[in-house]
Amino acid sequence: RTPGGLSESRRGRIYFSRNHAEKHPDMNLFGRARKAPDPKESIQQLKETQTVLEKREQFLESKIKMEQDNVRRFLGQKNRRSAMMALKRSKFYQNQIEKISASRMTLETQVMALESANVNMKTMQAMQQGAQALGQIHRGMSADHVASTMDDIQDQMEVAKEITDAIAQPIGFGAELDDDDLAAELDALGEEELESRLLGAEAVPVSTLPAMTLPAVPTTSLTTPAAPVAA
């Protein structure tokens, strides 16, 4: 045994364990790979630890209040020594609260970093899945294939137009008529119709004029007023 009380073999195992942990942080003492912690479980554990520290901080605040009351009470009793001990305990609790507050801030930072990393991981997974889906869709497509398909569509549209024009051509009826001759005949008919309207407007018969209505002859006789009698 060494002066420290540990055997050489035990000291060697402790040294090996520390050295192995420093060189291989992702492996346990048996050389097996450690299971990667789940992000959600890690976040939950950090938040639970925050809750424990918060409760501890509240407990220490109550102790500080109690010790401060003791300081005032001992001072009122002229017991300076007890007041000094109560003040020391209050300062000790305050120091513990400051350390706990720093630990809580560190845990909060870790939670935010893990949540951000978890969101980034899910975003990357979604982007990779989208890229794979696009690759699967475009696997049977190419720019040349698309251009060839568009050319085929254009050719078929031209064929459809030619078919439509062919169907729209008149068969038999009206095929021997000239559009210019028809237009000239239509203009002549229009002029004849206009002249006919003008002649009809000049010779309007009397019977078509509206009759004038005269007032009716009165049927009652007029009454002549009697002459005045001389006195």
What does the model show?
The protein has 231 residues and is mainly alpha-helical. 71% of the residues lie in helices and 0% in strands. The protein contains five helices and no strands. It has helices at residues 8-23, 39-76, 80-138, 143-168, 179-202. Helix 2 (39-76) runs antiparallel to helix 3. It is elongated, with a radius of gyration of 57 Å. The mean pLDDT is 78.
The number of helical segments is: 5
Q: Write down how many β-strands occur, each being a DSSP E stretch of 2 or more residues.
A: 0
In the predicted model, the low-confidence regions spanning at least 5 consecutive residues are none
Coarse morphology: elongated
Report helical residue fraction: over 70%
Strand content: under 5%
Quote the average pLDDT: 78
Order of helices and strands: HHHHH
In short:
The protein is mainly alpha-helical and 231 residues long. It has helices at residues 8-23, 39-76, 80-138, 143-168, 179-202. Helix content is 71%, strand content 0%.
Summary tags:
single chain, 231 residues, mainly alpha, 71% helix, elongated
